[in-house]
Amino acid sequence: MMITKTLWKDMIRAIKKSKGRFFSLMCLMALGSFALVGLKVTGPDMERTASHYLEKQQVMDMAVLASHQFSQEDRKELNTLKDVVLEYGHLIDLNITKDQQALRLYSLPNKLSKPLLVEGHWPKQDTEIVLSTALEKSYQLGDTIRVTPPSKGLLTSERFRVVGFAHSSELWSKSNLGGLRQVMVASMLMLLVGPTFLKGMPIFYVSDLIIFVLRTPFLNNTVKL
Q1: Which residue has better confidence, 155 or 199?
Q2: Measured between alpha carbons, how far is 22 from 18 in angstroms, rounded to an integer?
Q3: SS (H, E, C) 120-158
Q4: Within 13 Å, how many C-alpha atoms sit on residue 32's CB side?
Q5: Which of 187, 90, 88, 169 is closest to 130 using CA atoms?
Q6: How many other CB atoms are there within 10 angstroms of residue 141's CB atom?
Q7: Dihedral angle sign, alpha carbons of residues 183, 139, 167, 119
Q8: Whether pLDDT at 218 is above 50
């Protein structure tokens, strides 16, 4: 007991002689503890936040690209899949006429992988377009954007009026954009896919057990699929 009391007295005496160093060490230890607790808590919180966002936006789990349109036989086979809802859409790579920058044009999803509208409104005509928020510094609402498709007659229009900006639910980082700008376009009109779009890339998505694709209102309508 005497040894313990002596030890405590020595410790208290040492602390009193160097209060600044003692409190500095205490603060350093507390900071390290808080950082460790924060790191352990942040991971699960981020996972829950991401899971909630993915579920809310119904983001796809997988994308399947084809160099040509899916044939009727392909569609019949896909329709045999159980517990899925099938829908088709398209994307096309082209250039902005003004500066020849690369651009990727998507049809707008109806149900799944829905983009999050930040400003403006969704297109109501086939000449209106919603741009990625990555292009907010280059364009404003009401601006007209002219594009150059790979071949003439591929699109119903080569001029689009900017009516909104949106975040893509699939692209969480600008590093995911690759060398192409992301653009989404939609229309209230239901247009059919023309034969010239065979050079494009039809696409359908799988979300959990739901296969879905996007509508393609910006394509020329000459042939019924």
Answers
A1: 155
A2: 6
A3: ECCCCCCCEEEEEHHHCCCCCCCCEEEEECCCCCCECCC
A4: 6
A5: 187
A6: 14
A7: negative
A8: no
- The amino acid present at 99, given as its one-letter code, is D
- Which of these, 123, 133, 178, lies nearest to 156 by C-alpha position? 123
Joined together, the tokens standing for residue 205 give: 């998505």
Q: What burial class does residue 123 get, using C-beta atoms within 10 Å of its C-beta: 0-12 exposed, 13-18 middle, 19+ buried?
A: buried
- Each residue's pLDDT tens digit, 19-33: 788 888 888 888 888
| DSSP per position, 1-17 | -HHHHHHHHHHHHHHHH
pTM: predicted TM-score of the whole model, two decimal places: 0.59
Is residue 57's pLDDT more than 80?
A: no
- Cβ-based neighbour number of residue 129 at 10 Å: 27
